[in-house]
Design a protein that fits this description.
This protein is an all-alpha fold and 150 residues long. The protein has seven helices and no strands.
Length: 150
């Protein structure tokens, strides 16, 4: 069936990748809402100054700046992972992204998140106990590109 997803909804009714990421960030990390709004305002100002129509902040930008830089990196920066609530929310966020079934989202998680975790094996060791099935599968597929105890 052309134009339909596996669950029967039309592709046109599915949110864009950016909207999906934004919605999940908004839901799982309310403490990052001001950062999301600031990125959106920055995009609007850039578009206006360039004479272009404003566009959504990209999924890669949202994931990198709001999730990786704003949530995951600070969480993993301490010698011991101290905030288990945030760790659980990070894991659920990633499971929702990877569970979306969208190849473009999976690729984004691979390059922005999985590479961040496996590139710094101490981060993976801290975070591993919180992750779900989808991220574990992703890590198994990507770990061959890294050295470290996985």
């Amino acid at each position: 069936m052309v134009g339909s997803s596996q669950n029967g909804e039309s592709r046109s009714s599915r949110p864009t990748e950016s909207a999906l990421v934004r919605g999940l960030l908004w839901e799982f990390f309310p403490e990052q809402r001001l950062e999301i709004l600031a990125l959106e305002e920055e995009e609007r100002e850039y578009a206006l100054s360039s004479g272009c129509d404003p566009v959504e902040v990209g999924a890669y930008t949202l994931t990198s700046e709001v999730f990786v830089q704003g949530v995951l990196t600070p969480l993993l920066a301490a010698p011991l992972l101290l905030d288990e609530d945030v760790a659980h929310r990070c894991a659920r966020f990633l499971e929702h992204l990877l569970g979306s079934g969208r190849p473009s989202i999976r690729e984004m998680v691979s390059t922005r998140v999985t590479d961040h975790l496996l590139g710094y094996p101490e981060n993976w060791k801290k975070f591993r106990k919180y992750v779900g099935e989808f991220l574990l599968r992703e890590v198994r597929e990507r770990q061959r590109y890294y050295k470290g105890p996985f």
